[in-house]
Design goal:
It comes from Nostoc azollae (strain 0708). It is built from seven helices and nine strands; from the N terminus they run E-H-E-E-E-H-E-E-H-E-H-E-H-H-E-H. The protein is α/β, with parallel strands linked by helices.
């Protein structure tokens, strides 16, 4: 991964003639990743910002497509250099959004979509107040637990941690511009498309 420095004089301030930043967030297991994948398939004109993470790849994940997988020391070096638009720690791992690529695509007039955790989404709202923020909600706590267990990727302890964190995150849904319940996948996807494209 090549991380470019922010161009001289560049800031995160926006101009009305530029593109738009769209932030998709919600608790772990709510289906935001699957919604994002389908959205990108149907709308290749969207620019998806691939996040950087220190966690290990899951089965089938590809470096540079799903995430950029790097070491903790490299991540901390990039933080110190100011290379992230936002970054956060979640479930013992770091996640961050590379700054330069996002700003370049917004300046070229594109819709840029981020799929990030709550803490990072709050950072984006602070630095990009005109970003459109969408919070994906589960239909119920029991359904969320079923989805997380259905992944078969976490220990019981990790699942309990994710569910506890999810309840806290759901309390923050009102902070976001739009809340969408992912009960019916196609309906949720259509709601996102309506928000983005009218």
């Amino acid at each position: 991964m090549q991380v470019l420095p922010l161009p001289s004089g560049a800031t995160t301030k926006e101009s009305p003639s530029l593109g738009k930043l769209i932030v998709l967030t919600g608790p772990s297991g709510v289906g935001k990743g699957t919604l994002m994948q389908k959205l990108l398939q149907r709308h290749p004109e969207l620019y998806y910002s691939v996040s950087v993470t220190t966690r290990s790849p899951r089965t089938g994940e590809v470096n540079g497509k799903n995430y950029y997988f790097i070491s903790c020391s490299k991540f901390e070096q990039l933080v110190a250099q100011g290379e992230f638009l936002e970054w956060a720690e979640f479930a013992g791992n770091y996640y961050g959004t590379p700054r330069a690529a996002v700003l370049d695509h917004i300046q070229s007039g594109q819709l840029v979509v981020l799929e990030i955790e709550l803490e990072g989404a709050r950072q984006i709202r602070a630095s990009f107040p005109s970003a459109l923020s969408i919070f994906i909600l589960p239909p119920s706590s029991s359904e969320l637990e079923k989805r997380i267990r259905g992944r078969g990727q976490d220990s019981d302890e990790a699942i309990a941690c994710r569910l506890h964190r999810a309840q806290e995150e759901i309390q923050a849904a009102h902070e976001f511009d739009i809340q969408i319940v992912n009960d019916d996948f196609d309906a949720a996807l259509n709601e996102i498309e309506t928000v983005l494209f009218g």
